[in-house]
Design goal:
This protein is an alpha/beta fold. It folds into two domains: 155 residues, Medium-chain alcohol dehydrogenases, catalytic domain (Quinone Oxidoreductase, Chain A, domain 1, Alpha-Beta Complex), CATH 3.90.180; 150 residues, Rossmann fold (3-Layer(aba) Sandwich). Helix content is 32%, strand content 26%. The protein is built from 13 helices and 16 strands. Strands 3, 5, 6, 7, 8, 15 and 16 form a seven-stranded mixed beta sheet that branches. A six-stranded parallel beta sheet has the order 11-10-9-12-13-14, with helices on both faces. Strands 2-1-4 form a three-stranded antiparallel beta sheet. α4 packs across α5. The longest helix is centred in the middle third of the chain and has 14 residues. The protein is globular and about 55 Å long. 48% of the residues are buried. The protein binds NADP nicotinamide-adenine-dinucleotide phosphate (NAP). One of its GO terms (molecular function) is oxidoreductase activity.
Length: 339
């Protein structure tokens, strides 16, 4: 089968190539999926650039892509809830990365049925950003009806989903974006959209219950300036907090180094009697099924910026790397590309 593979660390051109590889076979608790659509995420580009190579090395050549939607072709002997012909979607586990390919195996616990009202392209837009936002806003922050949440970068893959998810929990949603995106981000349901090209959100906000930090850098520490005492800052790009480091099972020395790195942010949290947590999303078929219901019931809608064909996959990664995506960037195995 044909698959897009990383051949070395570096930029998209020169480090990604199509290769012919063996079609994978499902293990006992896995299914084999014929990929119909995939989506690309910043983590793919970060790994390709080598951002994590000091603690997690890639063994090249390696697959790329974590989101998939497609049709089950065959199942392992322990799989009872899915069968050939089922239409499914998933954020695959790290051991199965490589969804930009004709076929992929997925562990059954990471799988959910595709919402019937969505195309495979739409379904492929959901898993990674949906699970991240669910785990950050619902599981860790415990966002409640009536609370004020600040979601940075409302026009991104994460932000455009998170605004809708937070609204579905009855929260008051504030988001930031640039001038050109203000109108459509408001249409997603945000109650207050701050144009970061014209205004400084730090001058406008206070008493925020939950900050969803999707930008990192100075945004992580600045979150505490607008946070209510006792509030929660959940980051997906900031420093790893000691609890997250322990849950990840990192060794004592790495945890010590990370604790030093996160000292400032933990101090800022303590000064506000606030919670600071860094979320590293986990693949989870059960949560994906719950998210799928929100799409099935039209409470959340997919936000797709561009769709590329399989042959144009490298362009999809280059476009995402520009940092200007408006929603999700999709790779479609079958449909004509719209990009
Ligand atoms: N920890 C985890 O498990 C996890 C999971 C998923 C994602 N992430 C991380 O979360 C980050 C966001 O992911 P994503 O998929 O949303 O990325 P993305 O789709 O590439 O984000 C692009 C968007 O960011 C907006 N943006 C850029 N700078 C901004 C600023 N200063 N203020 C407001 N908006 C700004 C852009 O809007 P404008 O064009 O209007 O500026 C654009 O719409 C990435 O770093 C990703 O790696 C972490």
């Amino acid at each position: 089968m044909k698959a897009l593979r990383m051949t070395q660390y570096g930029e998209v051109d020169g480090s990604l190539e199509f290769q012919v590889v063996d079609k994978p076979s499902p293990k006992a608790d896995e299914v084999l999926i014929r990929v119909q659509a995939a989506s690309v995420n910043p983590i793919d580009n970060k790994i390709l650039r080598g951002d994590f190579k000091s603690f997690s090395k890639v063994s090249f050549p390696a697959g790329i892509g974590r989101d998939v939607s497609g049709e089950v072709v065959s199942t392992g002997e322990e799989v009872t809830h899915f069968r050939p012909g089922d239409h499914v979607f998933a954020r695959v586990g790290e051991e199965h990365v490589g969804t930009i390919a004709e076929y992929i195996t997925v562990q059954v616990s990471h799988l959910a049925r595709k919402p019937q009202n969505l195309s495979h392209q739409e379904a492929a837009s959901i898993p990674l950003v949906g699970l991240t936002s669910y785990q950050a806003l619902v599981q860790v922050a415990g966002l409640k009806q009536g609370e004020k949440v600040l979601i940075h970068a409302g026009s991104g893959g994460i932000g455009s989903m998170a605004i809708q998810l937070a609204k579905s929990f009855g929260a008051y949603v504030v988001t930031t974006t640039s001038t050109a995106n203000v109108g459509w981000v408001k249409e997603l349901g945000a109650d207050l959209v701050i144009d970061y090209k014209k205004e400084n959100y730090l001058d406008q906000l206070s008493e925020i219950d939950v900050v969803y930090d999707t930008l990192g850098g100075e945004y992580t520490l600045d979150a505490f300036k607008v946070l209510k005492p006792g509030g929660r800052v959940v980051s997906i790009v900031g420093d790893l907090d000691p609890q997250a480091a322990e849950e990840l099972g990192l060794n004592w020395l790495i945890r010590k180094l990370l604790a030093l790195k996160s000292r400032k942010v933990m101090k800022a949290a303590k000064a506000k009697s606030a919670l600071y947590r860094m979320v590293l999303m986990q693949a989870n078929g059960e949560q994906l099924r719950e998210l799928g219901n929100l799409y099935q019931d039209n409470i959340i809608s997919p936000v797709i910026d561009k769709t590329y064909s399989f042959e144009q996959s490298k362009e999809a990664f280059s476009y995402l790397a520009s940092g200007r995506a408006k929603g999700k960037v999709i790779i479609s195995m079958e449909e004509p590309a719209t990009a």
